[in-house]
Amino acid sequence: MTRLKEISLQTPGRLSFIEITSQVEAAVRESGVQEGSIIVFVPHTTAAVTINENADPDVIHDLKGILQQLVPWVGPYKHGEGNSAAHMMASLVGSSETVIIHKGRLLLGTWQGLYLTEFDGPRSRKVILRIQED
């Protein structure tokens, strides 16, 4: 059986990493699925989703810094909306993650968390969850 759930949230700024692990865990609990997987998908071209460390906030700080070095906000971009860097960053990070569900829980590592990454905020964003039972 497959279940879909949508999480809506407001991002706080232009470049933000918002941890969504607890919302995704709650969706898994509500689904009742004990064994399976979940796809966490962001249907936006200037946002993404990633798994990374959720214990030390310096990791997120460093990720933001590296992304801004790799993709400067101002560049020789042709896209007319002025948010080309956001599109590039979103492509680098990716629009989805898949996580195994085991014994009703996300099978994440000890220090791992799920993040919605915002590159063109503040905005209202959606995260789509597809919960699949084995």
How would you portray this structure in words?
It comes from Heliobacterium mobile. By secondary structure, the protein is α+β, with helices and mostly antiparallel strands. The protein has a single domain (2-128), classed as Sandwich (Jelly Rolls). 26% of the residues lie in helices and 40% in strands. It has helices spanning 21-31, 57-70, 84-93; strands spanning 2-10, 16-19, 35-41, 47-53, 96-102, 105-106, 112-118, 124-133. A five-stranded antiparallel β-sheet has the order 1-8-3-5-6, covered by helices on one side. β5 (96-102) and β6 form a beta hairpin. The longest helix is centred in the middle third of the chain and has 14 residues, at 57-70.
